[in-house]
UniProtKB/TrEMBL annotation:
The keyword Transport applies. This is ABC transporter permease. The lineage of its organism: Bacteria, Bacillati, Actinomycetota, Actinomycetes, Pseudonocardiales. It comes from Amycolatopsis nalaikhensis. Pfam families: BPD_transp_1. It comes from the Bacteria. It is found in: Cell membrane. PROSITE patterns: ABC_TM1. Its main location: membrane. It is a multi-pass membrane protein. Belongs to the binding-protein-dependent transport system permease family. Residues 45-225 form the ABC transmembrane type-1 domain. Keywords: Cell membrane, Membrane, Transmembrane, Transmembrane helix, Transport.
Length: 239
């Protein structure tokens, strides 16, 4: 990373790259200071953060139970697998006109895009985890006549936690992409809209500063998920 930044700075200093279209690390750092100092970036950060909070919250509340149920029920899994694969394979951007037509261009549409982007990899991972559940667990549960609901939260949920958190990591990354895509097409606020506006105005320093903030946000979210993985699934790596 340091080598890339140094080469980037040198290429603009030597005139090999036009700074008006690419900025450089020092100008980006100055733009970051200006954006935070003036408070201009805070509304965009707040809008994107709120959308992600709602989108990921809905994704986890819906995705985890659905994945557990689909993994446990062979009939439901066979019925829904083609539809899940189709929705996962088709770019959700293609459905933006339909989403706009049905829900408008307010926060609801942006949250729907985020949920659509994030929930499918979560469901797929959890379903795979439940279907690969150790058969000894299910035999013991059957012998002791464990109720179905109790089986989910006492056996299936803890045993598939590595799969769940792997799905959460994928969901977080796709949710951020979904949030930016939604802001590019459906918003008048947020980091995606901010970067688009600054680029349209040829203010590349601020635009690149916004992109750096997006990268930092993605790294922080990924780091948080990894902390949770190390805290709750350390036993999985020891097996």
């Amino acid at each position: 990373m340091a080598i890339v930044l140094v080469l980037w700075q040198l290429s603009t200093a030597l005139g090999l790259v036009d700074v008006s279209f690419s900025s450089n690390p020092l100008r980006i750092a100055a733009a970051e200071g200006k954006l935070f100092g003036s408070g201009e970036i805070y509304p965009a950060l707040g809008a994107t953060g709120l959308e992600l909070l709602w989108g990921l919250g809905i994704t986890f509340v819906l995705g985890i139970p659905v994945g557990l149920v689909l993994g446990r029920s062979k009939i439901l899994h066979d019925m829904t697998e083609p539809m899940v694969n189709i929705l996962y394979s088709v770019p959700y951007v293609m459905f933006l006109p339909i989403i706009i037509f049905w829900f408008g261009i307010d926060n609801t549409s942006r949250v729907i895009v985020i949920v659509w982007a994030a929930i499918l990899p979560l469901i797929i991972n959890i379903t795979a985890g439940v279907r690969n559940l150790d058969r000894d667990y299910t035999r013991v549960a059957t012998v002791f006549c464990t109720p179905r609901l109790k089986f989910f939260y006492t056996i299936a949920l803890p045993a598939t936690l590595p799969y769940i958190l792997a799905g959460v990591r994928l969901a977080v990354g796709r949710a951020l992409v979904g949030a930016i895509v939604a802001e590019l097409f459906l918003a008048s606020q947020g980091l995606g809209y901010f970067v688009q506006t600054q680029t349209s105005n040829f203010n590349m320093d601020s635009a690149m500063a916004g992109i750096v903030l997006l990268a930092v946000l993605a790294l922080l979210l990924n780091w948080a998920v990894r902390l949770v993985e190390r805290r709750f699934t350390h036993w999985a790596g020891a097996q």
